[in-house]
Every structure is written in C-alpha cells, then in structure tokens.
Design goal:
single chain, 172 residues, alpha+beta, NADH Oxidase, two-stranded antiparallel ribbon, 5 helices, binds flavin mononucleotide
Amino acid sequence: MFKDLIKDRHTIRTYKNDAVDFDTVKELLKFALMGPSYKSARPIEFLVVDDKPSLEKLAKLGAFSTKYLADVPLCIITLAHTDTTTTWLQESAVVTAYFQLLAKEEGLDTAWVNIYGTEKEDKPASEYLATFLDIPAGLTPVNIIPVGYGDERVRKRKDFDISDKIHFNTPR
Ligand SMILES: Cc1cc2nc3c(=O)[nH]c(=O)nc-3n(C[C@H](O)[C@H](O)[C@H](O)COP(=O)(O)O)c2cc1C
C-alpha cells in the first residue's frame, strides 16, 4: 500500500557494499520526472556519481552529515536549469521526494543531502563540486541523493495527530 511505503521510507546514512543496478535506477529517475512541473518546464536533470574518488570527495563536502557518502554505491545529484523557470528549487524537491519513494518500493534506501545554499570553505558548495565533477554548463547542483541497500536499524514511525497543523477558514 502506498501509505505503508511512505511510512517505511527513512533517511539512511549507512549502506551495505552491495552494488546497485543502474538500469533500475535509470527507470526510477524516469518516473521521478513524471511529477508536477510548473508550465511543464521540467528543469531537473541528474548527475550520477559512482566512482570511488568522486564519492570520497563528496564525503568531504562538510555539509550536515556527508562523511558516509564515501561508502555509498552511488549518488544522484539533482541539477537544475535555473534560467528556464523560477520554480527549480521546488521542482528539485518534488523529483527528489518522488525518487525516494520509488527507490523504497524497489527495495533501495536513500537520503537527502542539501547542497544549494551551502558553502565549502567560504565558497558555494557548487564551486567545490565543479572541481571534480563534470557538471554540464548552465546547470546548478541542488541536492545529493545517496542510493543503496541500507545497513542500519530504523525506528518504526509512530502515528501522530495532525489536528493542530490543520487550519480552517470557517469555525467548526
Ligand atoms: C530540504 C531537505 C534538506 C535536507 N538536507 C539534509 C542534509 O543536508 N543532510 C542530511 O543528512 N539530511 C538532510 N535531509 C534529511 C532530513 O534530515 C530527514 O528527512 C529528517 O531527519 C527526517 O528523517 P526521515 O527522512 O527518516 O523521515 C534533508 C531533508 C530535506 C527535506
């Protein structure tokens, strides 16, 4: 059930060494791009990083919790055409969230590492990435999605009441 899938997805920061089948990931990326997109602009592309030296450099990004990236089988970096739409940041989030759920359905675990707006040694993190990654011209890296088979215990999600998060226009 889709609700169970949503409950079972967790941010995973420890992965097994097991390789990930890229054809499977490619298929999931296609479906991740089928979400809503402002004026159907579809400004998001992907950079796949699966070579050890680059993963080790990603791990040195120094943003919130990145050391484990050296040991993941594969990372997807979302890239945005920032000149074609004003909504590229939201669109990257839509695509990432879709991908995380698609991956979970396939038995794969993921996390979400924010790049956009972060810095490495007082410079935008994107500048650091460009020193070792082949980022196509005109595209801005937004976030990293590590992908693999998780190797950590996760707590079951508790049910919770959302009454205080819902507001009504009319008294009831
Ligand atoms: C916009 C956004 C940015 C995030 N950035 C990071 C990040 O930089 N590093 C990280 O380890 N987790 C990051 N996360 C993941 C959250 O920490 C995680 O979703 C949260 O702890 C809840 O855990 P859960 O995903 O298992 O429900 C980010 C999540 C979102 C939505």
